[in-house]
Design goal:
Helices cover 38% and strands 17% of the residues. With 392 residues, it is α/β, with parallel strands linked by helices. Helix 1 packs across helix 14, helix 2 crosses helix 3 and helix 7 crosses helix 10.
């Protein structure tokens, strides 16, 4: 059985069990075919200098999610200052663990710094390295040095996976070989996310059977378009007096959004529910009339896939891989950062009769299929083993 080492911070940790959901669901289904060990490198910041642009939590090294053995490896870092060196430092800390595991192949989700570190280790071990681009790693590169190192990693990888054709094209523009780059779209657990009765879901959640319900699932962050979504719901208040927005997820931006709704006098129609399990998310999607994701950028958002599998129409922005998921029969797409257009699309979606059974039937891509396609690429790389050119 081939030994696959996965080097990625895009993976569940005890404090964030929903983190890296797509990677985890794919890998746990591949364990029947490969001996898999995850090495999860995490930047460790000093207590007196913590990053401000994201919620920083330390990993619990004793934690490992079910079905996939994992080791959590901290490496020292400083916000902004160490970014150009994080790839090399990460490689230094991860390499001894990989040497003990003796993998035949390395897979890394997230191009820099973990993918760069995986490539450095792969050269030392003489094994092929597959990089998985998930979206933010190549859509929002923070500085020129990181961009240079990202391009170098994409150019040197044995193979590059992307979660959408849009992201694949972006990876190729940044230097990935077109012949060794492929899109593998995300899936969902179709036993959980499936068409269900709206009235029953609303009764279970204590919602009014006659209300118009819009659901959002994702990080509570400005780049998810939540400011525009709250403004759009506020503007629809008169024409849609029974409209309610329910936001599922976590993030520091929540306080500003709550204040925005309160200032508009609509605090009672916009609720933030925090993080929810997959079963709870499925219940809220079943209760919804419309799912909305007005992000500024996306790779292949699982929340959209899950909403479609539940048969719910989607109002979203025309960015990233979203147009590959949503067409005129399953939703409405608008330009990002346009609350007026978003309000119009929500109003249209709420008034239209959708073929919800058809939407669900066309959206039945499961994680088993994702795992099979990923495994095929792994075996292809092992069979052909394109050596990593350290002189690139």
């Amino acid at each position: 059985m081939p030994r696959l080492a996965v080097v990625s911070s895009y993976f569940p940790i005890r404090a964030q069990p929903h983190r890296g959901h797509s990677a985890y669901q794919t890998l746990r289904r591949m364990t029947s075919w490969m001996d898999i060990r995850v090495f999860c490198p995490l930047a460790a910041y000093p207590f007196f200098w913590r990053p401000r642009n994201f919620s920083y939590v330390r990993a619990d090294p004793s934690y490992s999610p079910p079905d996939v053995p994992a080791e959590y490896i901290e490496y020292p870092a400083l916000p902004l200052v160490s970014r150009p060196l994080n790839g090399l430092v990460c490689a230094h800390y991860v390499l001894p663990h990989l040497e003990r595991f003796k993998p035949d192949l390395i897979l890394s989700y997230y191009v820099y710094p973990e993918g760069y570190a995986a490539l450095s280790a792969g050269k030392r071990l003489g094994v092929p390295v597959i990089l998985g681009a998930i979206g933010s790693d190549i859509n929002r590169i923070p500085d020129r040095i990181s961009a240079f190192l990202t391009r170098k990693a994409l150019r040197e990888a044995s193979f590059v996976l992307a979660v959408s054709e849009h992201l694949r094209d972006q990876a190729v523009r940044l230097g990935a070989s077109p012949e060794r780059t492929r899109a593998i779209r995300n899936g969902c657990d179709t036993s959980v996310f499936r068409l269900a009765d709206r009235a029953a879901a609303r009764a279970a959640l204590g919602l009014d059977a006659e209300s118009e319900v819009v659901v959002f699932v994702g990080w509570i962050a400005p780049t998810k378009g939540l400011r525009e979504l709250v403004d759009a719901v506020n503007s629809l208040g008169i024409s849609h007096p029974s409209l309610h927005l329910f936001c599922i997820g976590e993030g520091a931006f929540q306080a500003e959004l709550e204040a925005r709704a309160m200032d508009a006098g609509h605090a009672d129609r916009i609720r933030f529910l925090g993080w929810r399990t997959s079963l709870e998310v499925a219940s809220w999607l079943a209760a919804a009339n419309v799912f909305c994701l007005p992000s500024y950028a996306e790779g292949c958002p699982n929340a959209v896939i899950e909403a479609l599998a539940c048969g719910r129409p989607v109002v979203a922005t025309n960015v990233g891989g979203i147009p590959e998921l949503v067409n005129s029969e399953s939703g409405i797409l608008v330009a990002p950062q346009d609350s007026e257009a978003l309000a119009g699309a929500l109003g249209e979606a709420l008034s239209r009769r959708w073929d919800e059974a058809g939407i669900s039937q066309r959206s039945q891509r499961g994680w088993d299929q994702v795992a099979e396609e990923t495994f095929e690429i792994c075996m292809e790389c092992l069979a052909h083993h394109h050596p990593i050119d350290s002189g690139s």
